[in-house]
Amino acid sequence: MQFKLTVYREPDGVASILLDAADEQAALRQAVSSGYSVLSAQRSGGWSAWTPHESTFPLLLVSQELLALLRAGLNLVEAFETLSEKEHAGGIKSMLDRILSELYSGKTLSLALETYPGTFPALYVATIRASERTGDVQQALERYVAYQSRFEQVKKMMVTAMIYPALLIGVGGAVTLFLLGYVVPKFSRIFLERGTELPLLTRLLVDWGNLLNQYSWQTAAAAITVLVLFVLAVARPTLRAQLVRQLWKVPGAGEKMRLYQLARMYRTLGMLLHGGMPIISALGLMRDLLDPALRGQLDLATKSIREGGTTSQAMLDHGLSTPVATRMLRVGEKTGDLGSMMERIAAFYDEDLARSAEVFTRAFEPALMVLIGAIIGSIVLLMYLPIFELASSIE
Q1: How far apart are CA 121 and CA 54, in angstroms?
Q2: 95 and 186 share a domain?
Q3: Which of 233, 243, 262, 327 is deepest in the core (most CB within 10 A)?
Q4: Does the predicted TM-score (pTM) go above 0.90?
Q5: What is the pLDDT of residues 228-279, one digit of tens each?
Q6: Same domain (yes/no): 60, 184
């Protein structure tokens, strides 16, 4: 959801900013981490709060183009000048020009970016800021592009696995409604005119078909209303969060959702540790990226690490690791390369999710086709059953 905050920071003064966050506390933490003093905060309601020039900014694409220019030997200001010159979209060009003006005034890139927290997430700004200490912004962009590309790839894989089942359910449901609402009533009139004695299941099917045909417009309106309400409910962050919380309780699905969250956590931590950020700061920064169901566990793990515990043991004790990941973390602690090991853990989880998605697709899609075929076949069979009995009596 989106929040509108009235903030103060030197030398900008009082300003209003829009932040995307899971709740108000998360929005406040984002603002404070960007150096703002929050004067007031309120949830931004309705579609009127949508700001095209920020919310549609193609951060990954711009980062890839910026990385290519830096690799070509341009300095940071020249790279942004080039991006601004080639850009024709008003909102994107305006944002690039504003960043350029900040760079011209002598600000570092991280300070220029954190002025627009609605466009550049705290994770992105922190990655750039950590790289500025070592003078290697190019390497930071490489890590972020790789991180975001992998995240988008995993998300796309999960969505793709659900497209075909959704199409099957939609088409199967439409065919079933057509048979019940149109074909069954036609057959029922023929049976009624001929005075055919119908079996019990066929009579029930005919009753349902006639009812659906009699109230066809009302049924269609109700179905469309339910569909629209469902889409609107999913679009609302609060209701979507409630739906996700219910999915966490489903056996099997909840465990895979947990692995997805852990993969994102370890990949983020690995990227931040590679950038030179301390583990405690990295844990605090990526807290808002986790599902609320895991934030309490992360807080406890952070407290344990802050008190001197090892990262591997803290993650294991508070349910943020698996036996394999724990062993890998211990190896990373011994070799002093915890960041690389966390990225390998994330890759391991991604492979597990990919295998699970493939198994689910191979098993669920045929089962769904059999179920839909059985429903449609049963309707057809029940309608033809009286005809078969009539033919048998004639013989």
Answers
A1: 11
A2: no
A3: 262
A4: no
A5: 887 777 677 666 667 767 777 777 777 888 888 888 888 888 888 877 788 8
A6: no
